[in-house]
Amino acid sequence: AIALLDEDSARTFARTLGISIRGSLGIILEGLRKGLMSHVEALKALEKLSEIMFLSADLYRIVREEIERS
């Protein structure tokens, strides 16, 4: 089982229970790698996500570069 969690305290708690976790950014990257979404769709998803939750400029850049490399 994998839990979709973005909040740090929830991630920490899930890890103590031995639950695997993915965050929203990880889901976007995994979807791209598995061919479930195109590069354009992944970039749009990243942009939409950045509108509704805080992403540092560094994290946004890192994920965008990973999308572009994939």
Structure description:
- This protein has 70 residues and is mainly alpha-helical.
- It is 66% helix and 9% strand.
- A two-stranded parallel sheet has the order 1-2.
- Strand 1, helix 1 and strand 2 form a beta-alpha-beta unit.
- Helix 2 packs antiparallel against helix 3 and helix 3 packs antiparallel against helix 4.
- The longest helix has 14 residues.
Characteristics:
single chain, mainly alpha, two-stranded parallel ribbon
Explain the layout of strands and helices.
Layout: E1 2-4, H1 8-16, E2 20-22, H2 24-33, H3 39-52, H4 57-69
Parallel strand pairs: 1-2
Please tally the β strands and state the result: 2
Helix content class: 55-70%
Averaged pLDDT, please? Answer: 95
Largest sheet: 2 strands, parallel
Number of helices: 4
N- and C-termini, Cα separation:
26 Å
Instruction: Tell me the fraction of residues in β-strands, as a range.
Output: 5-15%
Poorly predicted tracts of residues: none
What Rg do the Cα atoms give?
Answer: 13 Å
Question: From N to C, what is the helix and strand string?
Answer: EHEHHH
Oligomer: single chain
Give the overall form.
Answer: globular
Give me the side-by-side strand order of the main sheet. 1-2
- Counting helices, strands and paired strands, the structural category is mainly alpha
